Amino acid sequence: MVGDTCVQVVIKSQILAGGRGLGKFTNGLQGGVHIAEKSKALELAKQMLNGTLVTKQTGPAGVCDLCVCVSLLTLPGFLL
User: Fold this and answer.
1) Among the listed residues 47, 54, 37, the one whose alpha carbon sits nearest the alpha carbon of residue 68
2) DSSP classification of residue 31
3) Backbone angles phi, psi at 50, to 5 degrees
């Protein structure tokens, strides 16, 4: 999934509502946007896909239809 030259990945939940960065998943995961070491990317993606994201715009019901995107960070400060 993630190349050998990759240092970090950005894992971002894609929902049709704002506030995903400040939201919270019902499974306890905080925030719908994470920058993580590639060794932790798969686990974070699994938590996002198996959770319901609650934001100010979704209300308490949240959103469980998530598309998780992974962007590779190959050099510090450069997003591909």
Assistant:
1) 47
2) -
3) -95, 10
CA angle 43, 21, 57 (to 5 degrees): 120
Residue that the structure tokens 């450069």 belong to: 78
Domain positions in the chain: 8-73
pLDDT of amino acid 8: 77
Blockwise average pLDDT, block size 10, the chain, 80 residues = 64 78 89 85 85 87 70 57
Contacts of 64-69 with CB under 8 Å at 24 or more apart are 65/15, 66/13, 66/14, 66/15, 67/13, 67/14, 68/11, 68/12, 68/13, 68/14, 69/10, 69/11, 69/12, 69/14
